[in-house]
Amino acid sequence: MLPTELILPIAIAYVALLFVVAFVGDQRARAGRLGWLKSPVVYTLSISIYCTSWTFYGAVGYAARSGLEFATIYLGPTLVFVGWWWLLRKLIRIGHAQGVSSIADMISSRYGKSTTLAALVTLVAVVGAAPYIALQLRAVTVSYQVITSAGPENPSGLPGAHPDFHAALWIAAGMALFTILFGTRNVDAKERHHGVVAAIALEAIVKLVALLAVGVLVVFGLSDGVAHSFSRASPQLLQSADVFGARWVTTLLLSAVAVVCLPREFQVTVVENVDERHLRTASWLFPLYLLLITLFVLPIAITGLSLLPSGSSPDMFVLTLPMWAGQNAVALLAFLGGFSSATSMVIVACIALSTMISNHLVMPLAMRFKWVPLYADGEVRRFLLNARRIGICVMLALGFVYFRLSSSDALAAMGLVSFAGVAQFAPSLFGGLYWRNANVGGAIAGLSAGTALWAYALFLPSFGPDVVLSAATLRDGPLGLALLRPQALFGLSGLDPLVHALFWSLSVNVLLFVVVSLLRRPRPIDRLQGTLFVDVFRAPAEATSGLLRRTASVQDLDALAQRILGVGEAQRFFARAAREQGLERGLPIADDPFISQLERKLAGSVGAATARALISEVVTVETISLDELMKIADETRRMAEHSRQLEEKSRELEATAAQLRDANARLTRLDQEKDDFLSQVSHEVRTPMTSIRSFSQILLDSRDLDGARTQRFVRIIHDESVRLTRLLDSTLDLGLLERGEANWPRTRIDPEIALEGSIRICEGLGGGRVALASEARAVGAAVEANEDRLGQVFINLISNAIKYNTSASPRVTVRSAVRDGVYEVLIADNGPGIPPELRDRIFSRFPGGLARSRTAASGSGLGLAISWQIMRHLGGNLELVGGEGPGACFRVTLAAMDSAAPREPRPA
Amino acid sequence: MAVRVLIAEDDPHIVESLSFVLGREGFEVSAALDGEDALRRLQTELPDVVILDVMLPGRDGFEVLKALKADPALRALPVIVLTAKGQAHDRRMAEQMGATGFMTKPFSNTDVVDAVRRAVRA
After folding, report:
1. Minimum CA–CA partner of B87 in chain A
2. Looking at residue B3, what DSSP letter applies?
3. How far is B35 from chain A (nearest CA, A)?
């Protein structure tokens, strides 16, 4: 026996240690240093909360009572993790995609986010979990009593027949406090409880080590090795007739389903999963864990049965055997192991269930009856947290009440009642993953009927006669109706009560689920969610959301998000969304994908159904039903048919279409030209900008430049700025010309005056290097033109001829004449000439090569284009002609007027 | 020995600024005003780095780069491609053709110096 004064501090110190681990885990997660927290091993260890005190103490008791049947409880999960991992993967993928916060949320999400279904699942889960929590309370209470009172002199374990309910109440209160401290620090249920998971992983190691330690003690300390320990087995124990019978199959099925459907298992496997790939590790490591933890169950059971006095509780062999052997250290370790397995189950189950209670029972009611001001900051968060805290207390209270009332003293029997309860989720959960037509009506009908039958045939009778159901009702049926006997419904007698209850509840559940689903027409949202679940690997969540078109004021959404998520979190979320939409600042656009994203985010806090209700308060929904879509598609098809007929009838239509195509092609080409032009302008602007930037940077950086250098660099900057200005002016000028906005006045002028002026201006350009020769000239010519603009053309041509002339003895000649009523000017040079590949586009903008400056601050590349445009506007022409010699020769022509009969000037 | 840089660029002011900036950092700078000139110079004086403008008259920068990469004697020579277009297309092309660096006009003087230093080290 170990004194209370020792056990209590050790238990409290152990809890404190767990709390430190959880705290450190949370801190690390908050700081973003997940490290080992996101290891697949931690994930697997957290899944092992499947092994509760039922496993730790109860498995031995189970084995002692029913032989090998205990193994089915571990074979079921093994089959699921090894063989059905693809089902788990689908659940996890959907969980991540939909922001699922619990199994109730998952099922309700699948069926059109139905509030009713979510509430129903929650109720079933809560009622179903009560026996399971009772089991943990019982185990901890009894083990505490055993370790503080039993000893070698009193090995039977229990001082009296009854567990100490007074101690149990304290234990329940302690666990409630512990869970509240652990699990309700944050409102976002989707946000992983990294700290809790870390603590649970530690507990998983403690319980495994403890059970292995007891096993080693039993096999190698109390027996003479494995063979010896098995030799004590009674033949009945190993060759129970029921092996592989109906009960065997039932418990196998139950445990396989429970490992997915138990709220706490769903919590750790799906909700707390950080990385889908962790499942790969869990699929072999979790079965291995199960194997290790059950390795010594049979030897312990056999040894306990043969060594301990008859009447000892087999559920406590794990504790009483070490005590009987006087191994107090091992006994203490075993006590801590059992304590670990109980606390981890209670914590996670209560977190999962309280989330479900707050999100799916309390919140919808609160919204309907306006218990909580939705429009006050932080109120909803506080309300939700309090609802969760109360939920945790309620769960432990229910567990305590069941423990107090229940007649069963076998841990395994209590656990199986729970298993059968959560198994009712299986048809709607698994059916919904693979059957597209499954809908909310079927799910509600199946689940309610199945649960009712489970409650009537298994749950209520499990309290024992005369607690809830009277002994008479149990024996003869209500009001003596034999057909309705709880444990022999509709005359089906002779079955094990568990098999019987499961047979009826699951059969009716599945039947109603299928039949009602087939009878009811799905709403669009059912279809949408159904598709999202069934095809989760095919379509991303956003792709199908086109069926619901929603709009909202982004301010309303922001206000709502701040109330639920808190100001900081909401701001971060909106800022991130705005960035994803490519907005620099401000609020994101409240389009449908964003609303869906926000809804999923809120669902993480309040569950899918409530989130949908909250969002719908500020959103205008426009539902496009599939029927409407079909109609639209139909319409389109008819239109296509109609237009085909029209096309057949009318060849003209085709011709028009061809013309349209042509026009479109032309427009496209023009567009392309415009793009090219802009790209060219950008290039032409960048070149002078480069010099300007580079030289100004030099001037800024170096204070020690000599005066001459500084002068030169400033001069270059100046020249390049002028070049830049000229380029921009020319661009604008050309733009005007090309749009036909050339409304300068045209008068009768003597073009020779303009030509002479231009020659004079250009004379200084070559720096005296270039010989500018004026040869034969027209006399007395008259044209209708604008003198300034004509001069601009001449200056451009002559200055080009001078500037680009690289000949050793550069020479430019200008000739003019009137021939056949046409005034003609030829400007020729002996420079490098125009390369053949440029001749075709010499008058287009930025022909390249030519315009590319060979001298600094040269032309903009637009001069010839502008000149050509001017001549066109004047009714004349500018062309490149084959000059004599190697250089280039440009010809300007204009209609000459009869010089003998001058006319009055007239406007253009 | 001073690091030698060949600038192939047709705008004399840009050549002047680059020459000044690089010369001040202790590089030995020479310039070619078109693609032919650049290739001719590479045959006689092997520099340590080439700064190559894309829009050269005659054979443009990409043609020069291609010729350069085809010549076993010049293949390893680091080339920094300079463009005033700044389009992703030019950059991709330069990268595919094996250019060491890529700079857009207008450039910052320090960026050019850094790019040349990096090219020499690499």
Report:
1. A679
2. P
3. 12
